[in-house]
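pls ignore typos typing on phone
C2E + seq
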Amino acid sequence: AAKTGGRNRVVDYTSTLNASTAERLELRRSLAGALAAGQFFLLFQPRVRASDGAVASAEVLLRWQHPVKGRIPPDRFIPIAEEAGLIGEIGLWVLREAMQQVSHWRMQANPPLTRLSVNLSPLQLAHRDFLPEVEALAAEFPQARGAIELEITEGAFFRDIEGCVHKLGRLRAMGFDIALDDFGVGYSAMSYLSTLPLDTLKIDKSFVQAFGRQPTAYAIASAIVALATALDKRVVAEGVETEAQAAMLRQLGVDELQGYLYSEPVPVAALTQPPDGAREPASVDS
Ligand code: C2E
Ligand code: MG
Ligand code: MG
Ligand code: MG
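k done
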């Protein structure tokens, strides 16, 4: 395409633009009926404790199985759902599924997991129906209390930081933990981080994956851990793919690690139960 003449290039460029706009419109149309049609499902990516590798929690990741186009990644359909005003409904479904799942696990003798993290869109959080809807879910699933962490991004604070801080405080009072996702790539000023009601900072995977290639990446990760420690917050690193990255993160004092090194996002059935009595100390008598 680079070799074509000026006129042709313009034509190509325009048709590409049109194609992607048409594609977006089409996705937007099919997205409207996707929830009712049962086209969404959830995958779970374990998060392990840095100290001993024990599975501490898992992140819930939404998937859309389009009947014709196949699997569409969330980075493509979430922005469209936000634009189309569908993110509230979809996001609430995700949270409800997660709370139901964790409640179910908490009633089992040897559950594979007892905690989950759920991603929230800034638009979802900003909507006035969000808190009452979550309150209703919390009442419906009392067993899930203390088991769910909500992951927000710095974009949530962009327009209305005070409103956001108030909502996060209410969510914490309902028993939810709050994590700041993709930390380090947004617009956060370090100075206001201390005033936000947060439990966890998630170091963005771009830093982890640049370890060994960009000296600044390790320096930034190190600064994030120092900040989190000073503010008494848990630190999680995402996108951990190699043992070398894991070793560096452990060295830095990161609490939990998440990434393909441990597991890809998997269906619920693939989350293996710990063996019977795994949490009990070994005993010769029994
Ligand atoms: P995120 O919340 O930062 O999630 C982490 C993403 O990194 C996931 O992509 C995960 O599959 C991917 N990942 C995990 N380990 C590795 C690794 O070792 N290497 C690499 N290269 N990637 C890894 P995924 O599932 O495609 O989700 C992308 C984004 O879509 C999420 O980023 C989140 O922002 C959004 N998302 C996913 N599910 C939901 C949801 O239920 N609601 C909302 N609002 N957003 C969601
Ligand atoms: Mg996340
Ligand atoms: Mg992230
Ligand atoms: Mg991300």
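The CA atoms of residues 38 and 65 lie 9 Å apart. The beta strands are 40-49, 55-66, 70-72, 116-119, 148-152, 177-183, 200-203, 234-237, 256-257. more later
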